[in-house]
Write a structure and sequence with these properties.
By secondary structure, this protein is α/β, with parallel strands linked by helices. The protein contains 16 helices and nine strands. Strands 1-9-8-7-2-6-3-5-4 form a nine-stranded mixed β-sheet, with helices on both faces. InterPro entries: ArsA/GET3_ATPase-like, ATPase_ArsA/GET3, P-loop_NTPase.
Length: 376
Amino acid sequence: MTDLDLGALLEDPATSVVVCCGSGGVGKTTTAAALALHAAERGRRVVVLTIDPARRLAQALGLTELDNTPRPVVGVDTSAGGSLDAMMLDMKRTFDEVVLTHADPETAQQILDNSVYQAVSSSFAGTQEYMAMERLGQLRAQALAEDSWDLIVVDTPPSRSALDFLDAPKRLGSFLDGKFIRLISAPARAGGRIGARAIGVGMSVASATLGKLLGKQFLLDVSTFVAAMDTVFGGFRARADETYRLLQAPGTQFVVVATPERDALREAGFFVQRLAKDKMPLAGLVLNRVAVSRARISADRARDAAQSLEESGDRHTAAVLRAHADQAEIAARHRRLIRDTAAAHPRLATVQVPLAGADIADLPALRRVAEALSTP
């Protein structure tokens, strides 16, 4: 492995988008916030987009809340000419805005009022990831039109698989283009008498069976939803394709985040391979929460000494030695896993962030993380 110099990457004006990705619970949100803060305090005009519903980013940035609108972060050192805005994806609102923007008012209201749309826009698998892509595209267009930001930092959704972010547009398209959806929406697509004949001839037994299983109102809602979405879904795909090309552009850099644990590193390896397959620019790997043991005494010797001290009555020192032994074992395990990862990906650039003693809950703590991230 080689050293990952994220400081130089962030300060390079050619870098316009940084995407933090990885499995859930590895510190993507903190990493994204720290990278954004570092860039802003070195002169970049930054907006950071988080998809994390836990609102940790808002707390760390000193904001009472985040929503779908970028808000300035107070307390950032702007002496170098930079700035920092932050926002959290509101999936439903983003979907609504897309519909309102790309459909005429009557059609848009039909879509917004439709029960199937309300379910899809709120909870359908892949919608959050798709809307993250949609919002990234919106931010990029706004940055170019208004000259507002020169760097966008994205914290990807906490998905069961890190690959969901890249696959979401295709998955949502597959849902709306699926044979089942097309079948039950055929009457609304045909319209009028043709639609009636479609029910009588094309759907016949299938329609009656589906009606009994799912309910006629549900079929009508799906039919109406898909027919109305036809007016805007072509735009969905075009924008998704455009955003996908943005993710492949030289100005974009992916940062894979993982903890030195077997499952997280395996998931990171999958993502590294996928990025290479899709020809997306990978900056490198952030190894987060790495345990470090600086004491020279080994874990075994520390435990032996602790036992002797306990027998002599010095319980306090014994407890300290046992805590050191536990830390040393964790640090040794982390080193082994990191060596294995280096052997599997010898050309992958990495940077390590030591395990923090407390939660990252304010700007000073974020700055310490940023310093670790930007020091190869």
